[in-house]
């Protein structure tokens, strides 16, 4: 008889090794469709590597791509730590972006230096607002937040499209559904001249560090971990579980909103309804790959951004489809999940014969 | 009479706890055997070994085959037990609520890859069983819409459909009204007349005496008695269940002090009998251990939930140390000086993934030696943990290790350390020694007596009457969500009160 038993101890090497091994295995699996497409996998991976580390510009592109993923990854990781399944980062990202262009494109007469902080704060607040209703419904009626946050994504996206063809539409856009651009003083300054990587990355890194510190060292983090790991015991110990959930929901929504702010105010300058190629959903993958650790989120976001940027350059160089990037990301997530299972459980063969002593 | 089942010297332990110790039992064809015992006496463990859910440490089981010849049963395989004609109806039903009774009965007994299901054939077969046994149930209604009694009949039909010759019913009447219970026993009688043999687990003396042929009593995992029902009476069974001698009060007596907890007219509308309280009055004094005795599921959870602050009662007044508690929640009770030892220490007592040190301060995160300006004082927390681990002998891989790595006894010591270190005015100890070995259990008792000597009041909820008789200054019996003060320390009388007989 085969039984699956939880492991008593998890070795540190195992927790660190599983994601790395998963990434390598995923690249190995991805060689199969590459071969099928008629490409030499080794050459393809060389192209991919060059696309990531080949030049300062290449790597700056990876950093640019990683920035929103760090925000959405943190949004998912913190919420998931409390077992609050926020699948709505995509929608919250658009709420944040919409708030950013709404105040940043000159509608409000704000003194120059105050505009950027205002955009950031209101963007985060808009994202946080997106979590209020799902969390209230969960606490009050037990509504499953997976469903409510997921469905809100579509509602918000359609709302954004409506606004982009309505009040937020740029009068100068010749009928295109896009917003007016954010004023120059409202933009996040670039980090390197003539490259796209912007100071949103610094904000993301600071927040990741702060989140890591607060989770481990603050009373707030203590409560959050207790609620996530065993809500019944947390409640019994006098922790207000609902308040903790609400707090982390607001924070998670705010971080996702910042992803939107960072994309419009750091990169695009204006809002269209295709601002995000699924950063909100990819953030969930980032968080899972990171084992819900904030610092891990930074590493996982860099990995996934590398795969995407590298696959783009590989597909240009070798003429294979860049959808391969999605494949590598999905397979590495599957590998991590399977690996995580083996890190937590072991398979034991138990004998049932010979007990009649 | 032919024997259809023999359990030969079955033993089973879980860690240091002995659940069954060399239990032998025989069951004859067409017989109703009642298996009696207090909670934790090992009845369910014994039946789970019979059914293959647990693997015995030693011992063997023989089951009669269709020809009536006893054959050894391979242990640890529920499928094999089923095939040998052993059917079990668990206390908690195992039915799929969204499909019909008919489908529930046939579920799992059909070949996986059959091209078509012979529903008509199945229906006729079930109807024949219904006609023979009198176990009626609407076959085409989804189980979710059936009453509890009907669901139980579906469970029994499911076992009979699989040609069970031996039927085990685990506390079948716990969920039934008295009328439903009577009908059930009539049906059982019809089935045994057809040759079925039945073991039913119970701790209700009345129904055991009225409906069984033979009685076997378990206590502390051992079979302590067996007799024909015709020769038994309530007193003799009660004595067997709870033991003959009353243990000495471990700590001597003490003069009670001022009231530290008083409940007056407290009512909790629970979801089930186990967490319902109806207009309860209770006073606990300083220097007093109050024992709450009762059969499991009679409102103990409801009482514990109120004293823990987990549930706000619908009516009634609660005072701790003379101060009325308005809004009841765990934090308010902790502030008022109530220390709580929860019933389920893994589920409610600790956060297993967090460290031993963190679990030791989880109830006092606001204190200035735990945090300053919202940041944890890690060194102080660690020092506190090292001190408590030493004082309360919490052993394990260290205070920074996750609490789930501790053994059950050490988890309980962790909780004791957390509770007693704050010198609480009132202590709620809910099943504090369940699942602990002798040493750890004695430690719990010693700490409770120490707290009493210091001037705390203690509410000790336990299903182990020995524990209550050994520690409590005063005993109250809980039954159907009501409290009844026991007139003395007479074990037999308390046993009868617990079983619902007039004292």
What does this protein look like?
The complex is a heterodimer of chains A (357) and B (503). By secondary structure, chain A is an all-alpha fold. Chain A folds into two domains: 1-38 and 322-357, no CATH class; 50-319, ABC transporter involved in vitamin B12 uptake, BtuC (Orthogonal Bundle). Helix content of chain A is 70%, strand content 3%. Chain A contains 13 helices and two strands. Chain A has helices spanning 12-36, 41-53, 56-81, 89-104, 112-141, 145-164, 200-217, 219-229, 231-236, 241-268, 279-289, 294-318, 324-344, and strands at 2-6, 345-349. A two-stranded antiparallel sheet of chain A has the order 1-2. The radius of gyration of chain A is 22 Å and the shape is globular. Chain B is an alpha/beta fold. Chain B has three domains: 3-242, P-loop containing nucleotide triphosphate hydrolases (Rossmann fold, 3-Layer(aba) Sandwich); 254-337 and 424-503, P-loop containing nucleotide triphosphate hydrolases (Rossmann fold, 3-Layer(aba) Sandwich), CATH 3.40.50; 354-422, no CATH class. Chain B is built from 17 helices and 22 strands. In chain B, the strands form five sheets. In chain B, strands 6-7-8-3-9-10 form a six-stranded mixed sheet, sandwiched between helices. In chain B, strands 16-19-20-13-21-22 form a six-stranded mixed sheet, with helices on both faces. In chain B, strands 2-1-4-5 form a four-stranded antiparallel sheet, with helices on one face. In chain B, helix 8 crosses helix 17 and helix 14 (408-420) runs parallel beside helix 15 (438-454). The radius of gyration of chain B is 25 Å and the shape is globular. The relative contact order of chain B is 0.11. Chain A binds chain B through residues 1, 8-9, 217-220, 222-223, 225-226, 229-230, 232-240, 352-353, 355-357, and chain B through 55-60, 72, 74-77, 308-310, 329-331, 333-334, 340, 342, 347-354, 358, 362-363, 365-366, 370-371, 374-376, 378, 405.
């Amino acid at each position: 008889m085969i039984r699956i038993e939880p492991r008593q101890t998890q070795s540190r090497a195992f927790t660190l090794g599983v994601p790395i091994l998963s990434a390598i295995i995923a690249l190995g699996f991805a060689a199969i469709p590459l071969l099928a497409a008629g490409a030499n996998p080794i050459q393809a991976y060389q192209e991919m590597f060059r696309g990531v580390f080949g030049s300062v510009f290449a790597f700056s592109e990876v950093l640019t791509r990683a920035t929103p993923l760090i925000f959405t990854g943190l949004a998912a990781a913190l919420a998931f730590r409390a077992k609050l399944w926020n699948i709505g980062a995509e929608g919250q990202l658009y709420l944040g972006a919409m708030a950013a262009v709404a105040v940043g494109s000159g509608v409000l007469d704000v003194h120059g230096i105050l505009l950027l902080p205002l955009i950031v704060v209101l963007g985060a607040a808009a994202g946080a607002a997106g979590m209020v209703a799902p969390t209230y419904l969960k606490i009050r009626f037990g509504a499953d937040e997976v469903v409510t946050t997921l469905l809100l994504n579509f509602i918000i996206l359609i709302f954004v499209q409506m606004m982009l063809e309505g009040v937020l539409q740029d009068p100068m856009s010749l009928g295109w559904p896009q917003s007016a651009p954010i004023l120059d003083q409202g933009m996040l300054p670039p980090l390197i001249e003539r490259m796209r990587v912007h100071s949103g990355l610094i904000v993301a890194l600071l927040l990741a560090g702060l989140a890591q510190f607060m989770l481990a060292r603050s009373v707030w983090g203590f409560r959050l971990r207790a609620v996530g790991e065993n809500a019944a015991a947390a409640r019994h110990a006098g922790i207000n579980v609902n308040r903790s959930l609400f707090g982390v929901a607001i924070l998670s929504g705010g971080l996702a909103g910042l992803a939107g702010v960072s994309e419009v105010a750091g990169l695009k300058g204006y809002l269209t309804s295709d601002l995000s190629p699924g950063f909100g959903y990819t953030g969930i993958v980032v968080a899972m790959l990171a084992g819900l650790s904030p610092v891990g989120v930074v590493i996982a976001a860099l990995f996934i951004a590398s795969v995407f940027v590298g696959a783009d350059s590989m597909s240009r160089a070798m003429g294979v489809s860049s959808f391969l990037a999605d494949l590598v990301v999905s397979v590495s997530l599957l590998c991590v999940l399977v690996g995580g299972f083996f890190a937590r459980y072991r398979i034991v063969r138990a004998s049932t014969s010979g007990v009649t002593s | 009479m032919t024997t259809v089942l023999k359990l030969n010297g079955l033993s089973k332990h879980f860690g240091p706890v002995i659940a069954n110790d060399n239990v032998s039992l025989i069951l004859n064809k067409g017989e109703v055997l009642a298996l009696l015992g207090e909670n934790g006496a090992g009845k369910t463990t014994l039946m789970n070994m019979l059914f293959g859910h647990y693997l015995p440490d030693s011992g063997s089981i023989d089951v009669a085959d269709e020809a009536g010849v006893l054959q050894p049963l391979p242990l640890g395989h529920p499928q094999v037990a089923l095939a040998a004609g052993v059917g079990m109806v668990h206390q908690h039903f195992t039915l799929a609520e969204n499909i019909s009774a008919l489908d529930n009965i046939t579920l799992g007994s059909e070949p996986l890859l059959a091209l078509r299901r012979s529903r008509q054939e199945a229906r006729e077969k079930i109807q024949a069983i219904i006609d023979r046994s009198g176990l009626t149930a609407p076959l085409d209604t989804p189980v979710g819409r059936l009453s509890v009694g009907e669901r139980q009949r579906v469970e029994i039909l499911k076992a009979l459909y699989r040609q069970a010759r031996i039927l085990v019913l685990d506390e079948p009447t716990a969920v039934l009204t008295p009328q439903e219970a009577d009908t059930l026993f009539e049906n059982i009688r019809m089935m045994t007349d057809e040759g079925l043999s039945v073991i039913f687990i119970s701790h209700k003396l009345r129904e055991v005496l009225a409906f069984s042929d033979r009685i076997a009593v378990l206590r502390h995992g051992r079979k302590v008695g067996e007799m024909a029902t015709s020769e038994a009476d309530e007193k003799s069974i009660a004595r067997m269940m709870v033991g003959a001698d009353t243990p000495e009060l471990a700590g001597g007596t003490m003069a009670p002090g001022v009231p530290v907890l008083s409940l007056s007219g407290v009512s909790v509308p629970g979801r089930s009998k186990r967490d319902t309280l109806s207009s309860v009055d209770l006073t606990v004094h300083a220097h007093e251990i109050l024992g709450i005795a009762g059969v499991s599921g009679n409102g103990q959870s409801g009482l514990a939930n109120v004293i823990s602050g987990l549930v706000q009662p619908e009516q009634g007044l609660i005072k701790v140390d003379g101060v009325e508690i308005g809004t009841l929640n765990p934090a308010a009770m902790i502030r008022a000086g109530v220390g709580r030892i929860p019933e389920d220490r893994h589920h409610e007592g600790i956060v297993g993934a967090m460290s031993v040190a963190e679990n030791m301060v989880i109830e006092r995160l606001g204190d200035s030696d735990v945090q300053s300006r919202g940041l944890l004082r890690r060194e102080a927390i660690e020092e506190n943990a090292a001190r408590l681990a030493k004082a309360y002998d919490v052993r394990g891989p260290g205070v920074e290790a996750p609490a789930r790595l501790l053994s059950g006894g050490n988890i309980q010591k962790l909780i004791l350390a957390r509770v007693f270190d704050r010198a609480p005015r009132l202590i709620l100890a809910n099943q504090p020694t369940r699942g602990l070995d002798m040493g750890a259990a004695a430690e719990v008792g010693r700490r409770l007596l120490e707290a009493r000597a210091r001037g705390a009041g203690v509410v000790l909820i336990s299903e182990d009457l020995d524990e209550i008789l050994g520690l409590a200054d005063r005993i109250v019996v809980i039954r159907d969500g009501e409290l009844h003060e026991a007139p003395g320390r007479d074990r037999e009388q308390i046993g009868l009160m617990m079983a619902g007989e007039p004292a």
